[in-house]
Amino acid sequence: MEPNRLGDIAAFVAAARTGSFTAAADSLGLTRSAVGKSVARLEARLGARLLNRTTRKLGLTDEGRVAYERWRQILEDLDEVEAT
Fold it and tell me: E strands along 1-84, which residues?
């Protein structure tokens, strides 16, 4: 696994959950630019667009919706394991 992969996934999940790179950055303690670059890196690695971007909001593509649900659950599971 590439070192940034988990961080890229966390940035994508936060952006999808909040609907905003700015809100995702605030929740992760990152810059808006760092979140955007993480999502772009993830999309490039997968060869698929995960988010539809407008000047006002983010929306999930069909591929993004599937990825979000899977990765959201994985991140929740990791948090649960860490808490036990």
Answer: 51-53, 58-60
What span, in angstroms and rounded, lies between the C-alpha atoms of 34 and 15? 12
Task: With CA atoms as reference, report the closest residue to 39 among 24, 56, 57.
Answer: 24
Write the pLDDT tens digit of every residue in 34-60: 999 999 999 999 999 999 998 888 999
Tokens of 7: 């961080």
> Which one, of 49, 56, 65, 63, lies nearest residue 17 by Cα?
65
Tokens at 31, concatenated: 């810059």
* Integer Cα distance of 81 and 72 in angstroms: 14
Q: What is the mean pLDDT of the chain?
A: 95
